[in-house]
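Input sequence (298 aa), recorded before submission:
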Amino acid sequence: MDGRHFAELTAFMAIHETRSFRDAAARLGVTASALSRTLRRLEDRLGLRLINRTTRSVSSTEAGLLLYAKLAPAVSSVEAAVEDAIALRTDLMGTVKLNLPRLAAELIMMPRLSKFRALYPGVRIDMVIDDALTDIVAKGFDAGIRIGERLAQDMIAVRLTKPYRIAVVGSPAYFLDRPRPETPYDLTAHDCINYRWSTNGQIYRWPFTDSDSALEVDVDGSLVLNDTGFIREAALAGLGLACLPEAIVEAHFENGELVRVLDDWCAPFPGFYLYHPSRHQTPAGLKALISFLQTEER
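Predicted structure, token format:
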């Protein structure tokens, strides 16, 4: 396929997607009349009408719908291949605005920032630590990082980590005058440190499994926080039991600062994913960050 034929197909796809010659022409940086001539050449070459156009509407014919269905994945693969190649450049410039919760910043980004900066010194990372389920498009972010079960359905999602497990922990001092819980139902007798969602103000229900069935428990306590880092610090200080991803408290198991309970009741949950809008809008700096994080995880 020569360059002119590819340009004709690109023009047809833009018209199909925008349902407007004017909008498609603006996307491609040409005039509407030039775009119309390009489409006509394609239709003449194929011997098929691809677009129905009237003074008030533009729509694809049956042949146009079939052609677009075949073209879209192929063009997407070509664009992805080009983006992957660009991501290998070390002279990339620009800013990547990233929205993520404290856990993702602590577990994923902060340990790797130094290496990423050495590889891509021209890419600036602008991180906003945010435990709320923020609309990244409305707020002007390039991407977000969230637990897999909390992703928006209309986003492209890239897995960054393996699944995690929840850990229920308390300090040795907390257990000096209290029995350790044997089942989640025993938590009613304990002072539990609650987490409050910033988005809706609701209290987080502690998740467990019983013979492969899910179980969520409402716990009570004298302390409510909306920051997982402070919940961990409160547990270390002996202020109550905490329910946290094991990855951020593992080191405290090993040095004896925290004791884990209800281990058999804690099942894995989806790990972190980076999510962002359509591939057509993926900045080169973000593409480099995605490739870097995936490589680091492997």
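Checked by second reader. The longest strand covers residues 94-100.
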